[in-house]
Every structure is written in C-alpha cells, then in structure tokens.
Amino acid sequence: MARIYLDKNAYINNLECIAKKVGDKERVILVLKDNAYGHGATMLAGVAKDIGFKFCAVKNEYEADQLEPFFDKILILSHIPEGNESQRYIYATNCLKALRDIKDGTRVHLAVDTLMHRNGIQMSELDEAFEIIKAKNLVLEGAFTHHRGADELSAEYFVQDQNFKSIKSKILKIASELGFNKLDFHSRASAAFERAFDFDDELVRVGIAQLGYAQFDATLGLKPVLSLWAKKVSSRVLKAGQGVGYGGKFVADSDMNIATYDLGYGDGLLRYNGVGRLCLASNEPLLGRMSMDSFSSKDTGEWVCVFDDARVWAKFFNTIEYEILVKLSPFIKREWR
Ligand SMILES: *Cc1c(COP(=O)(O)O)cnc(C)c1O
Questions:
Q1: Was 256 annotated as part of a binding site?
Q2: What's the total number of domains in the chain?
Q3: What domain range is 276 assigned to?
Q4: Same domain as 156, residue 13
Q5: CA-CA to 275 of 20 to 30 Å: which in 56, 69, 193, 302?
Q6: CA distances from residue 130 to 90, 109, 149, 185, 253 in whole angstroms, order as listed
Q7: CATH number, domain at 258?
Q8: In a mutational test of the pocket of ligand 1, which residue from 18, 77, 194 has the highest number of ligand atoms less than 8 Å from its CB?
Q9: Taking CB atoms and a 6 Å cutoff, what residues make up the pocket around ligand 1?
Q10: Residues with catalytic function
C-alpha cells in the first residue's frame, strides 16, 4: 500500500530554524490547516508539541478538535463558534458582521484588511469594531493581517507592512484604554517571514515554511518533510507497438519491462493525461495516462518515490507546491522515518 513518509529530522530542523529566526518558539503560530497541507496534522502536532511549540492555526473547528490535545492556543481562521468549543480556541473575526455574530465573551483575534481585500475589517472601521468588542465583552487577544503579494518581490509587501504598523499603534491605544494589554500581533506568513529581518515583536504565522519549502531565504536551511511512495501492483512486458493504460497513450518502441504502481488521481494526485514528461523522483517518466488508483512506469522495483519535492509536480502542472501537497488523500498511510 502506498505511503507518505515524513522525515522527522527535517521537520524538527525546520521548526528550530523558524524559531531561531523569529527569536522564540512562543512567537510562532504553526499553520496546520487542511491536514497540515496534506502532511497529516496530528502527526506533525505531536512533534511540534514535544519540542515546545504551543500555538497553531487551523481553518475550522473540525480541524481544531483534532489538534486540541496538542496546543495551548488554537487560532481558528474562518469559523464562527457554534457552542461547546474548547477554552483553547481563539477565533479570527474577519469582518464587522463576524464580530456582531460571535457569542459574547469569545476570545478573538481581529483581522484587519491592509490591502488584500479578502478578509478583515477595513482600517476605517476600527472604532466601530471596538464598540462591538466592548458591548459584547469579547476577549481581544490579538490582531493580524495577511499579505496579498509577499511571494512576489515588489513594493506591496512594504505597503502592507506600513499599513499594519499604523493600525497596530491605533489598536494598542484603544485596547489599552479598554484594559486589553498583552495583545498578539501577527502579519507574516511564510514568504513574508522569509523576507523579514525584524519582526517588530510580532508573532509569525507559518505554514509551508515548516514543511521545508522556502523561496527567498536559502540560508534558513529548510528541508522538505514529505515524500510520497507507491507500491507495485503488477508488472509485465510491454511489447513493441503496445500501448499502456486508458487510450493507450504511451506506445513502446521496443519491448520493455513496465509496472503499475498503486497511486492515482483518486489519491489526490493531479491527473496526468499522458502528454508531456512527468517524472518520478528517480527521473523515470510516467507512461501513459494516470488511472484513478494507479499509474504505470518502467519497472524499477517494489517501491517508487513519486516525489520528495512537490515543486517538481507543481512545475509540471503549472501550479504551486501547496496544491500538490494539500490534495494528498488523508487515506494514504503516513509514517515517520
Ligand atoms: C494559510 C495561511 C497562512 C500560512 O501561509 P503559508 O504561506 O503557508 O505560510 C497564514 N495566514 C493565513 C491567514 C492563512 O490563510
């Protein structure tokens, strides 16, 4: 049966590198949404907890419930509480309506829109937001923003950084009048974290960096954590002139030993239609179309590594490594090694 191997040393290395750059493990919010980008959220959470990380972020309560035993604080990015939630949960409030809808007394981090226009209150809505916070006795524990273009080297990152700085000082002023003192501010996801030299006493919110994917700062020494392995289902000689798989898209020039391996688009791989050269980690190409539960390639043994760097598949499919990783089915067995 196919396997995802998770490299424990690589993961610990990445976590330590991130903490070192920010200065403190307590300043790191580990983003473990979407099953930790397909890696297996509870597996990573166990290791992160053991080495002292205490704060994570997820998408919704379903994910939070799985990680509740591992972290002191869990920031839930896009979900309004429905009742019976854990004391450990903190809710991102993504607009004024969310502040109005949320239950009285809830712990919140206020999202502020500093340019992305996806989530967050407008900077001009701050006074109104605080009126709601006060009226509902919400427990304001932090505020944050998200960059729309930190992954592209342009001035936008600095514009948002500046916008956030100015809103931060306003928030601090109003918050202290209301008696909210220790606030956690955070604005930097992985790309912005890599680009930053000074964290302005903020926390960082890193997802992909902890998994070993860096794009700006090679000196960080991040290493990919996940490798995907497929097991042989069957093998045969594909005779000269025969085609393999649906539509017979790959035709052998001469007799060759091929094998079929047990991963396909039903396991979350993007479907390869047999056109262009898509390679396994060994550089052997897939042969013909991918099926729902299998693909074929030259027979190179019982196990093949499909990829140990998701960027190879991302490049082929003209997408980002996030998408290649996050789609990996939760039903593939994950193991540390
Ligand atoms: C997903 C997400 C992150 C993490 O982004 P990476 O690029 O993986 O570090 C951080 N903040 C928010 C609001 C997110 O949705």
A1: no
A2: 2
A3: 226-336
A4: yes
A5: 302
A6: 17, 12, 28, 16, 71
A7: 2.40.37.10
A8: 77
A9: 31, 33, 77, 146, 189-191, 205-209
A10: 33, 246
